[in-house]
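Operator note (shift B, R.M.): manual run for D-2-hydroxyglutarate dehydrogenase, mitochondrial requested after the automated queue skipped it. Running by hand, logging everything below so the morning shift can see what happened. Input copied straight from the record, untouched. If output looks odd, do not overwrite the archive copy; leave it for review.
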Amino acid sequence: MLKILPKIRRPVRCLSAAVAARNEGFAKVMQSDLLAFENFLGKDGVQKDDISNHITDWTGQFKGHGSVVLYPKSTEEVSAILAYCSRNKIAVVPQGGNTGLVGGSIPVHDEVVLSMNKINRQFSFDDTMGILNCDAGFILEELDNKLAKLGYMMPFDLGAKGSCQIGGNVATCAGGIRLIRYGSLHAHLLGLTVVLPDEQGSVLHLGSSIRKDNTSLHTPHLFLGSEGQLGVIASVTMTAVPKPRSVQSAMLGVESFKKCCEVLKLAKSSLSEVLSSFEFLDADIMECLKSNLDLHPVLSKSTPFSILVETSGSNEDHDMEKMSAFLDECLSKNLILDGVLAGSSADAANMWKLRESAPLAVTRDGYVYKHDVSLPLENYYELTNVMKARCGDLAKRVVTYGHLGDGNTHLNITAGKRCEELEELMYPFLYEWVVAHGGSISAEHGIGQLKLPYSNLGKGSEERLLTKKLKNIFDPNGILNPYKMI
Ligand code: FAD
Ligand code: MLT
Ligand code: ZN
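Run finished. Output pasted below as returned.
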């Protein structure tokens, strides 16, 4: 049944037109503030020049005006920064690896950037219980590499793993390509150390470092997807998972979206406990990968849809047997047109290269309108068809890839450059369509600046009010990451 949609603000995509006016209640950073920062961080903890990497996002669509980046080296230094900024009403943007795709880690006006790049020393791991405790500034791939030596891996994986940080992953509740198997970060988070933006820079140790603890509200989970609104995450305690000894990957060519869903159903029932990824690419993203990055499909036939399916287990013979039986059944039921099973890790890497290069390929068209919505599967690809018809020739490409196994589509609409006419056709139509069909306007990337005009869609007024009340408790002066999600 279609839902009644609330009214939303003018349908502008964020960028210059939609940026909120500077809150004049915030102080501007003065020379005396810089000296105070240098006093408790040291000169190397305060950077005023060459900060463009910290005030521009990965897509290049968000460029902030911050004039200083702070690099604390410890939780105590984060606390000193937040206490000072809170007392002096200086707005602050927490920043991890700056790979977010909604402008959440970029200052809007003159907010100070608090970079977590140097908070990456403490690491400990219990290799019996599989419990990791580490500083928030560790890069995801570094953690994965450290855990690999101990027979474990992180329970999630993203194309941005070489730059994103575990603190940023928690703050965005990152999804990625293993969620179908290991669940979301909600299933893994046990505890956090957070620093509040209050006048004491209060340091809170939330949750615990044991697997089961029902003695309180699960307060660390409030920070999952909090987008730097409630406090700065300084360290993370979470579960990791055993590193699979056998990984099998296959690329399948499918003729219709309906059949892709049937393949998913079959994968869930016949690969069941070893199924670890089920990723989707349509023919338009394949074409984009070829023309923009010279990356060629691994399948010999060109098919309307491709699926990358992966299993992770502990016994190669067993997993191979399952994968082969699954592929045979796909063929015998006429669900696939073509299929390739990776014969080596290099073959598998080629398959993943296609999927993981999709975000980069679309940027090469000039300008990309990114989406990360989730939808019931009956509407998943309908959205792509609806938007193709709606955008017509104004779009350079309308391509789709995504985490089909999680109902999460990444519909990307490209143009040679930013095009207001196209934006007016797309928004708010696209987001209203998603909510009207029972979906979420953000399955992964969050609200940030990008989706702020639409953030009320799909959320009731009581929930929005509760969120604002929580924000006021954590951040009484409203200095943390203003003009964004809440
Ligand atoms: P940042 O971009 O620095 O920050 C993101 C938000 O978190 C901001 O609001 C920031 O203020 C806040 N924040 C960061 N660190 C902290 C902290 N320590 N304390 C409090 N707040 C903090 N996302 C997915 O979910 N799934 C994917 O598959 C995926 N693939 C990607 C592929 C590519 C190529 C790229 C560029 C991005 C991808 N992303 C994906 C988006 C992005 O990588 C994730 O959102 C990631 O979790 C962000 O981590 P980060 O450290 O870069 O955070
Ligand atoms: C992905 O799954 O590749 C990411 O979420 C990034 C994107 O949407 O482009
Ligand atoms: Zn994604």
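Quick read of the result: Residues 175, 372, 403, 410, 444 surround zinc ion (ligand 3) (CB under 6 Å). The domain at 31-115 is CATH 3.30.43.10 (Uridine Diphospho-n-acetylenolpyruvylglucosamine Reductase; domain 2).
Leaving this for review. - R.M.
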